[in-house]
């Protein structure tokens, strides 16, 4: 009788993971709000996969309990959150799971959790977030797994680390800069943000005016690309008369006031309906 072959199939084709900053903030918030005595938090990763690159865009924590070599997940909570997330963002799907703590700590329970998410998506990714704060930074590592089988039966599962990077869009980068500023006492309001935008715009206009004046005076050699860009920028600015601009501003202000009035009116009706126990939204 021929001996049973020992097989080690490659279980994952993903070779890199990209994580959005909102994922790290959500995981950190879940870790801070964890139950007393809970060692770590775990949860589900949402995103997309393209050309072997897993892009993690969102996540949510899943309640669980661990004891010795056993782990229990709140599957109902996981399924409910997955359905709600699908309604909000249909393009995002489950791509793996996350955990906090030391990623080098070997836990047999991780294989059980990974097997569960293997039923939710093919080749799930494990994102490990080091919340110990050693070295003044928060380490992020990603792992995929492959199975060691004997005669078609899985005997063990090995985790392999893959490249992981935190990548943010322009809008996300603004929020990250605000939250990472050590001198920021509070988040800027709408008027403060608008004032800062006007300051940056004024500074850019001053630089452009100084450049144009220097070129016209012959003090600096003009750049054709810069001149074309300035001409296109000026041409893109809409031209309004003073009366038209004041009318447009007044109309927009009236529209905002009307929307604010209707929202306050609906809020008052909802509060009254709540007091009466009807909770029926009246037709306006």
Automatic annotation (TrEMBL):
Record function comment: Component of the eukaryotic translation initiation factor 3 (eIF-3) complex, which is involved in protein synthesis of a specialized repertoire of mRNAs and, together with other initiation factors, stimulates binding of mRNA and methionyl-tRNAi to the 40S ribosome. The eIF-3 complex specifically targets and initiates translation of a subset of mRNAs involved in cell proliferation.
Keywords, comma-separated and alphabetical: Cytoplasm, Initiation factor, Protein biosynthesis
Name of the protein in its database record: Eukaryotic translation initiation factor 3 subunit F
Biological process, per Gene Ontology: formation of cytoplasmic translation initiation complex
Subcellular location as annotated: Cytoplasm
All residue ranges annotated as the MPN domain in the record: 17-149
Domain of life: Eukaryota
PANTHER family (UniProt xref): EUKARYOTIC TRANSLATION INITIATION FACTOR 3 SUBUNIT F, EUKARYOTIC TRANSLATION INITIATION FACTOR 3 SUBUNIT F-RELATED
Major site of localization recorded for this protein: cytoplasm
GO molecular function term, any single one: translation initiation factor binding
SMART domains assigned to the protein according to its UniProt record, in alphabetical order: JAB_MPN (SM00232)
PROSITE patterns hit by this protein: MPN (PS50249)
Family membership noted in the UniProt record: Belongs to the eIF-3 subunit F family.
GO cellular component, one term: eukaryotic translation initiation factor 3 complex, eIF3m
Oligomer status and interactors: Component of the eukaryotic translation initiation factor 3 (eIF-3) complex.
């Amino acid at each position: 009788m021929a001996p049973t072959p020992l097989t080690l199939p490659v279980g994952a084709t993903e070779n890199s993971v990209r994580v959005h900053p909102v994922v790290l903030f959500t995981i950190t918030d879940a870790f801070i709000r964890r139950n007393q005595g809970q060692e770590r938090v775990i949860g589900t990763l949402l995103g997309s996969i393209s050309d072997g690159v897993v892009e993690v865009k969102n996540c949510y924590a899943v309640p669980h309990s661990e004891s010795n070599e056993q782990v229990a997940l709140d599957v109902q909570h996981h399924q409910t959150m997955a359905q709600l997330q699908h309604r909000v963002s249909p393009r995002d799907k489950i791509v793996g799971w996350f955990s906090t703590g030391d990623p080098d700590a070997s836990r047999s329970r991780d294989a059980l959790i990974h097997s569960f998410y293997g039923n939710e998506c093919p080749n799930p990714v494990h994102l490990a977030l080091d919340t110990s704060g050693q070295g003044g930074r928060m380490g992020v590592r990603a792992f995929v797994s492959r199975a060691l089988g004997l005669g078609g039966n899985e005997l063990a599962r090995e985790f392999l680390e893959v490249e992981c990077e935190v990548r943010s869009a322009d809008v996300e980068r603004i929020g990250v800069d605000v939250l990472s500023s050590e001198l920021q006492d509070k988040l800027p309001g709408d008027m403060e943000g608008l004032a800062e935008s006007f300051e940056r715009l004024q500074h850019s206009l001053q630089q452009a005016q100084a450049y144009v004046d220097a070129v016209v005076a012959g003090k600096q050699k003009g750049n054709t690309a810069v001149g074309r860009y300035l001409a296109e920028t000026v041409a893109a600015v809409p031209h309004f008369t003073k009366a038209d601009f004041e009318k447009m501003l007044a109309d927009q202000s009236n529209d905002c006031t009307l929307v604010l009035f209707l929202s306050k009116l609906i809020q008052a009706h909802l509060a009254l309906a709540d007091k009466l126990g009807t909770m029926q939204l009246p037709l306006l």
